[in-house]
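debug: dumping io for the single-chain case to check the tokenizer round-trip. Nothing else runs in this session.
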Amino acid sequence: MMNRMEQKATIFNIQKYNLYDGPGVRTLIFFQGCPLRCKWCANPEGLERRPRLMFKAASCINCAACVVACPQGIHKLNEQGNHVIDWQWSNTCTGCGACVSACMQNALSIVGETKTVSELVDIIMEDKLFYDISGGGVTLGGGEVLMQPEAAAALLKACKQEGIHTAIETCGFARREDILNVAQYVDLFLFDLKHLDGRRHKELTGIANEQILENLETLLIKNYNVKIRMPLLKNINDSREEIQAVAETLKPYRTMPNFQGIDLLPYHKLGVNKYQQLGKTYAIEGDPSLSETDLDRIESWIRQYNLPVRVIRH
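debug: decoded output
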């Protein structure tokens, strides 16, 4: 059996000094792979569990160095002499990084790498002093961390052994046994609720929400600390009916000490440019941002149910 510290995780980013995803100063580790395909996803580079090529066309000078270097033939020059990527063929990319090394303009990058739990613990421990002072710790996000449950459990257990507060961000779509195995090492679940209507949830994310809601109920009943996170998009999930449905669902848990309230996450455009860099089309049309008035109104609807709620403004 593999040593737990040598369990491997596929990640696509590590963000230090995070102040939004759990209490205090935190290190946020982004796990690669997600079962959902939310139309507004801000981290499309983390959806698949394999290295992803990203291309900043504005930085490219069409020198063709990557065309020569790539062993897979993904990079090409078109008839006009411009560098293009065969995005369909890019599924064969192994993440070797030859094109990245050849590019002198930093127009190319490979997202995704494999690290052992011990390597990740070493990175996390670099900021132990900040966690101790601020009441912070480590948060595992993604992607969806529960797509790699064994690696997640091993890393969380190692952090607990070092006295580090642990949290995970999750869409909640996972096998019950996986989420409960991980839960024994989690101090706080940051649990997404995107839409309560199962049909609409599937339209927006590609997956129905029955299992998600079952897992949420399981965690709350079993006294694990849960904070609800609601991504909000105008005319998508901000109606009074939808907000009241969420409040009615959560109302039975409002007096439970392990229910940590609701965070409202207003839509932002921070991930939009990544889609072009990945050869993808962004599925959200128009601007579904909410105004401060909209957010105040939604917050007031939830407070009518005596549920603790706040708006997270990055």
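debug: round-trip ok. The chain has a mean pLDDT of 95.
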